[in-house]
Amino acid sequence: MTRAEFMARLKQGLIGLPMTTAAEIAADYEAHFDEGVEAGRTEAEIAGALGDPGRLARELRAEASARRWTQEQNPSAAAGAIFGLIGLGAIDILILLPIALPLFGTVLGFLVAGIAIFFAGGIILVVGPLMGAPGGVAAAILMGIGFMGLGLFMSGLMAVLTKWLIDATVWYARLHYRVLKPAIDNQVQA
């Protein structure tokens, strides 16, 4: 593979990253080619040593997404990290999905339930005193406040658990990549 082919495939794989990040990565690999040519190696040898540009781009995108999640920690960054890691290893998904889907589903269910309980508490708080609830006006107000507090607690707890699950997923992917990288490198060299 020539330098131009390698760089074209790498740049194609980096589409979607911020332009400055993609340009920095491309410049780094251009420098690898420059240094290799100065050392007397051919473009094909350098490209072979660097590996498959498609896989390399997926790894770089996953790492950039994981780095963005550690810096920003917002829903967009979380989705980017998860999808970047999914793109890195489809086989890993077969191992991770049976564990992750029920966990994320349960947390999402409790989050939705917490929001529903909060709104139900608001309705009880407003409508309860007008409807003549058992225990009187004070009981209706306290019950509404209690339900709203429970809803806030559940929603907050689930938000924290969601962050922990995303952090654990990113940690797993990085660990898994570090464990497999030596085997992948040995396979490429063989």
Number of helices: 7
Rg computed from alpha carbons, rounded to a whole number of angstroms: 25 Å
Portion of residues in beta strands equals: under 5%
Distance between the termini: 17 Å
The whole-number mean of residue pLDDT values reads: 79
Instruction: Please provide the ordered H/E string of secondary-structure elements.
Output: HHHHHHH
**Fraction of residues in helix:** over 70%
Class based on secondary structure composition and strand pairing: mainly alpha
Low-pLDDT windows of residues: 182-190
* Counted beta strands: 0
Biggest sheet, open or closed, and with what strands and sense?
A: none
Overall 3D form: rod-shaped
What descriptive keywords fit this protein?
single chain; 190 residues; mainly alpha; 0% strand
Q: How would you describe this structure to a colleague?
A:
It is a single chain. The protein has helices at about 5-15, 20-40, 45-50, 55-70, 75-90, 90-130, 135-190. The chain starts with a helix and ends with a helix. The chain is about 90% helix and about 0% strand. It has seven helices and no strands. By secondary structure, the chain is mainly alpha-helical.
